[in-house]
Structures are given as structure tokens and as C-alpha cells.
Amino acid sequence: MLPDLPRISRRHALEGSAAVLVVLGLLLWWLLPAGEPSPQGRVTFSTGVPTGVYQRYGALLEDALDREVPDVSISLRTSEGSQQNLARLASGEADFTIATADAVATYLRDGRPGASRLRGCARLYDDYAQLVVPRSSKVRSAQDLRGLRVGVGQEGSGVRLIANRLLTAAGLDPAQDVRPVSAGIDTMPKLLEDDRLDAFFWSGGLPTSAVQKLSERFPVRLVPLPEELVDRVHAQGGSSRYYRSAVMPADAYARAQEGRPVETVAVANLLVTTDRTDPAMAEAFTRTVIRSRDRIGREVHPAQLVDLRTAIYTDPLPLHEGARRYYLSVKP
């Protein structure tokens, strides 16, 4: 005969069942994916002119997103630049874009349609103003552009904004004292090479491939934009406070600079979206931008300067909630 087994009390049975449930719960927590589901859908990214840094950055970011967020399909759309990018974003024609901080501040100041809906995801890298002339040109300062044919960027570009401010700071009326030519970085180098321009302004990351290639086939140089000129830009008030004095390193365009650094003005670029964007999508975009810095930076050198410590500073825009979640998740 088998010995009598000890009777298990109801209380002990309940405690045992609870322990099993806890163990199962922990196991499920470990095995199942945590957090919100990965974002899905289609988004449009408004970039820039075909040979500009924005467009190349967008193409490489598209590749990174394919790996990081495979259920999101991204469509790139070229543009004239920052001002057109912001208008597209605000109207719903685009979901994400890159724009300079001065262009964003101007859009907000002017109360343009949808301005209150704009949100920042990350501070990226700085654009540097570049005044390019043939090496044989007599132009030594912005003041010397009077009466000349000057490429000032397309109407919807950030280049147009900064070119007009620099010309004004130099004591020139952008519409009357120079012969402004509305053109982008995709056409200005060829126009200068063919003697259909005397100079052109560009604002972009260093180096910009179109300027680099021009300097390798045609003798050009960069005209200094010294600190005192930047001080006069600041005196214009408003969004001009987003410009700062900077120096292009001697090797940015080795042939054009002939081993010499060049004084200039810089302005930050921002990754921008709107309050219509789902937080999970904004978080995924922000995370991908930060994580892909080195990979993108191997081909677009300005991207190497994207820094987690400064990316959170998207002034003059408030952070999107999704971007905020990302920065909180990686906060030490």
C-alpha cells in the first residue's frame, strides 16, 4: 500500500499557481518584442537640388531606413531648398525635410501657412556660405560684386536668403546693385565656367561635391566673408541671429583655397517634421539619423558632424514628441 501523500492546502496551491504565472509572465516579457510596433506606411522626404548635399544625404538616409525600419517606404523629392522644403512640409506635401535654422525662423516670423505645426527632430550639421569666383577675378570682398552677374540661388532656397542678407550687409541692394541670377548649385558652376556668371553664392556642407568638382576642372577661389560682415548681418535682426562666424578649413577645397583657411558664415541644418507625424515614425527617423551618422558620413562628410549631444537643440522649433522619446531612451 502506498503511503498517504501530504495534502496541499488551498492557500499553498494558490501561491504555487501565482508563482507559475509570474514565471510565465516574465518568460513572455523576455520573448515578445517590447514597446510600440515598428512604424509602417509611406513618407515623403523633401530634399534639395540634384547635386546638393540635401539630396545626397536623403538618398543615403533612405538606404539606412530600409534597414532600420523595413516597413516604411520613403519617397525622395528634390526641391529648390530650405524655403520650399518648409512650405511643402507645412502644406502636407512632405512628411520630413532638412532646412536651415534661419529659414525656419524666417518662416515662423512671417507667420507662413502651417508654421505652428512645424516640429524639430534633430540638429544635423552646419552649412557654410561660399562665395565662388574665377581665380582671375578682381573680386576680393562681397562689396566688389557691384554691377556683376551673381548667382544667388533659386527663389525657394536657403541660399537666396543668406545671399540677400550678405549683399545687404555689404552695402548692396540685392535687386539693384548686382545682376542677380536665379540658379541652383546644379547649374551655377557650369554658368561660371562658361563665363555666364561672374560669381555665385552657395550655402552647404563641406565639401559640396559640385563646388569640389568645379575646382578640379576650372581655376576658382573662395572670397572671404569676414567676421565684421557677419556682425553687420546680425545687425539686421530677426532670424539673422542664427548665423555665426566660422572658418572653412584649408583642405575643404584644396585647389580653390590653395592651402589657406577662409573666413565665412555658418548656419545649422535641422531635420524637420510636423505635429501630424506619428510619434513612432518620428522616433524611428531620429534614431536612424543618429545611428547612421558614420555610415552616411563616409560619403557625405558633413554628416560626420551629427552629434547626439547637440542633436536635441532644434531651436527655433520645439522637439517632436517622437524625437523626445528617442533622446530620453538614450540618455545616460
Walkthrough of the structure:
By secondary structure, the chain is α/β, with parallel strands linked by helices. Helices cover 38% and strands 20% of the residues. It has helices at 10-31, 53-68, 82-91, 101-109, 158-169, 188-193, 209-217, 227-234, 254-257, 279-291, 293-297, 308-311, 321-329; strands at residues 41-46, 72-77, 96-100, 118-134, 149-151, 179-181, 199-204, 220-222, 244-248, 262-274. Strands 1, 2, 3, 4, 5, 6, 7, 8, 9 and 10 form a ten-stranded mixed sheet that branches. β5 (149-151), α5 (158-169) and β6 (179-181) form a beta-alpha-beta unit. The longest helix is centred in the N-terminal third of the chain and has 22 residues, at 10-31. It is globular, with a radius of gyration of 26 Å. Residues 18-34 have low confidence and may be disordered.
